[in-house]
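Fresh eyes needed here. I'd like your take on this protein's tokenised backbone:
***
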Amino acid sequence: MLDGVSLDQLRTFIAAAEEGSFSAAGRQLRRAQSVVSHTLANLEGQIGVKLFDRSGRVPTLTEQGEALLSLARAVATEVDLFKSRAKGLAGGLEAELSLVVDAMIPLAVLASAVAAFQVEFPSIPLKLYVEMWEAVADPVLDRRCAIGLMGSMPPVPPQLRHERVLTIRAIRVVSPQHPLAAYRAPIPMSVLAEHIQLVHGDLSSVSRTGRLGLLSPRVWRLCDLAAKHHFLRAGFGFGIMPLHMVEADLASGALVEIRIEDDPPDGHLIAMSAVYLTNSPLGPAGRWFIDRLKEEAAIRVNGDASESANSIHVIPVTSRSPSGIGLAAANPGNLNAPHPNANADSLDAASEGHLFGSKGEIRQKIGLSQFCRAKRG
């Protein structure tokens, strides 16, 4: 008899429990009280469990009924999601949204867009991969991911279309105990060469970029940006970090900014774009997500969000200065064009991967349904 339990019976059970009486449940369901009572009596008979105690003036849930109510709600919710998912798939909605992001993506922007996505598309599961540098393109090219978020420095394969999303500002920092912290004027390259440069990158970035962006022959290469952050605070060397990650350290004095010869006055601007296959147009969910990312970046620049230092120093595509990143935006079809502030000694990014927190940070703060590192090949 258990196989005969219907969704209608479960919804009637839920309504009676939540409304507190069979008559109130009947009004909610637009049924006569007698129909509600008969439906629940049949359900109790089928499952062999008494759900309501009818000895009083108003029926009340039994202990067994309390135990089964949460399960009934879960079943009803899953059926609703099933119907929503089926309707979306029939209308061209993606079965899932898979993303690969550069490690420098600001967590506040990404998390806010993901939170809004979960509300807008509750039935679509999300997969998120994190890569460094040009490796972001690989999962998109082999169709493991529909969308990539990557910086503008590496050459992008012609198979990918791109849309500018936001720009990150980064600065060079050292511990106040480091010898370079004593310099008040721009530091000569000859002086930098005497100290260890902390670089965020892996072996693939070394083979692809060589020594581009390296300012010292003494290099420590770390594959985790959080480790690099700790090493900088410990005074092991100098390196470039996204401003939103070190702003609290600058305010507390745990890190200090240093400048080198020919540094741009406002720091280093790293443009980020969404990329996807030209011959595989985005579905409704993917299109919505990219647009939402742009909106979240704009909100934080305009000062409407005050979550943390993580929510500032992000320049959206809609508010660039003509002398800054606007030049690259003038040619939206060419992501390979050099960034106005991107030169060999202005960015460690070419060898440092790109600039943002560890996968563990994002896993902890976002709580995504799936979080894994994209495997090449």
The longest strand covers residues 160-174.
